[in-house]
Design brief:
The chain has four helices and four strands; from the N terminus they run βββαααβα. By secondary structure, the protein is an alpha+beta fold.
Length: about 90
């Protein structure tokens, strides 16, 4: 089970994302995904608070989404669909 360390929450201005450390990985959540989730614009501080509020959902996603070079990138599509993607037409 992936555990996220809330003490490690920080904003990456270059990548426009919120970062949080997990076991052996860093979870990166795009600012755009958080704004889509809340349906409004967020400041950097609000984005960090939203990640803290959504810890359970993000923990589940961290277990499902494979890491790429020690980082798990959470995009709008992943966050809004809980990491599930339909392949049926």
């Amino acid at each position: 089970m992936q555990r996220l360390d809330l003490k490690s929450l920080r904003y990456d201005r270059l990548g426009k994302s919120v970062l949080i450390d997990g076991r052996k990985v860093v979870l990166e959540i795009s600012h755009e995904a958080l704004e889509t989730l809340t349906n409004r614009s967020l400041s950097e501080e609000e984005a960090i608070r939203k990640v803290a509020d959504e810890q359970k959902r993000l923990t589940r996603l961290a277990e499902w989404v494979p890491a790429d070079d020690g980082k798990i990138h959470i995009t709008t599509n992943m966050l809004m669909n809980d990491g599930k993607f339909e392949t049926e037409n």
